[in-house]
Design goal:
The chain is mainly alpha-helical. 53% of the residues lie in helices and 2% in strands. The chain has two domains: 160 residues, no CATH class; 177 residues, no CATH class. It is globular, with a radius of gyration of 22 Å.
């Protein structure tokens, strides 16, 4: 029977979902008692201000991968190690699952890599029985890849894994804002803004967490835009990153997309092509060029995500709506606060102290939202 990449990816993902449910449940059993682990996602959605009302199931791979890749309140990253192995593989699989859900036509190489992610994840969790079956599915994909390329299985495997080579640098026409605008002492948010509603995963407000870029393809994918396969792959990762980080400035989103295909910077022409695909992915882009995930309503969202000065998020890449939400919260907490005191408190909430010209202009734009 001829090898079919999409069936191979589906078999691998279905098997992974069966093995991950008990692994996740066992890790959180002492913290959640009789509650299913999906209650964590219900609380996360509430804290994020998601308006989707989505019902999660323990056997749903989408829910499982969120548990592995997102910070779970006071639980932190209970499935990860110091090298963020699980988060990295989990982000790769989030994109694969998104592609599968949108009927993306996988290549033989795609099928091998997707199944290799499944094997590596189950190996990390020490699941020998699950790993053996995942290896069987992966080997079928590897054999098909070797036959397609006319090489040995070892050569085929090495060539596929080579996608993890260092990223290429294209000449950019303008430098991006730096995450840290000041060399002063580290700035941390005031404890007041970190307090949220009590819940099973802690009382704290969710802080900003950046998407960890993973290599999912080569520059060839970007070169082939707007061909069907290329644009589907770009749109899939755009949706995943926007859902994870949104609201996110479109320039930052484009940067993270191109890094996923081996570039560190991008010239204006390619940037325009990718930004077009972001808009075609069904994501809302507001007048300030911030991209919103489908789960958030820009007109009603009232949350904000504090961060310290070490966070990988330049102040000008924080939505004016998010900054205004923080200002509104602080003003309600501190009766009689002056405008200048409010500005200082808002900057501190997002890890900033000094007011450069660019930063001050962005802050003033945000304050207009009030």
């Amino acid at each position: 029977m001829a090898f079919k990449p999409n069936l191979s990816v589906k078999e691998g993902l279905d098997h992974l979902a069966k093995r991950l449910d008990p692994i996740i449940a066992a890790r959180l059993a002492s913290d959640l008692g009789d509650h299913p682990w999906t209650v964590v996602l219900d609380i996360l959605d509430q804290k994020k201000g998601f308006a989707n009302g989505y019902k999660y199931w323990t056997y749903d791979l989408q829910a499982q991968l969120r548990m592995l890749t997102e910070r779970l309140g006071d639980f932190g990253y209970p499935f990860d190690d110091h090298e963020r192995t699980v988060s990295t593989i989990g982000n790769e699989l989030r994109i694969v699952r998104k592609q599968m859900a949108h009927m993306y036509e996988f290549s033989v190489d795609d099928a091998f890599r997707a199944n290799d992610f499944c094997v590596r994840l189950l190996e990390h969790f020490g699941d020998p029985e699950g790993t053996d079956e995942a290896k069987r599915v992966r080997h079928e994909a590897l054999a098909a890849l070797a036959e397609q390329e006319g090489v040995t299985e070892q050569v085929a495997e090495d060539a596929s894994v080579a996608l993890g080579l260092p990223a290429i640098v294209e000449k950019a026409e303008a430098p991006r804002p730096k995450a840290i605008e000041s060399k002063d002492e580290p700035v941390t948010p005031d404890p007041d803004v970190l307090m949220g509603e009590p819940s099973a995963i802690g009382d704290g407000r969710l802080e900003f967490s950046p998407w960890s870029v993973v290599r999912i393809g080569s520059i060839d994918v970007l070169d082939e835009l707007p061909k069907k396969a290329a644009k589907e792959k770009v749109r899939a990762i755009a949706v995943e990153i926007a859902t994870f980080e949104g609201p996110i400035h479109i320039d930052r989103l484009v940067d993270k997309i191109v890094q996923s295909f081996g570039l560190q910077r991008v010239h204006a022409r390619r940037q325009g092509k990718i930004a077009y695909q972001v808009r075609q992915a069904g994501l809302f882009v507001d007048e300030d060029k911030f991209v919103w995930p489908r789960e958030l309503d820009a007109s009603t969202w009232a949350e904000f995500r504090p961060n310290d000065s070490d966070a990988d998020r330049p102040f000008v890449y924080i939505s004016p709506i998010e900054i205004a939400n923080a200002a509104r919260f602080i003003r309600a907490k501190r009766a009689g606060v002056t405008d200048d005191e409010l500005d200082v408190a808002v900057l501190q909430t997002f890890g900033r102290k000094r007011r450069t010209k660019q930063l001050a202009a962005h802050l003033a734009r945000a304050m207009e939202q009030l």
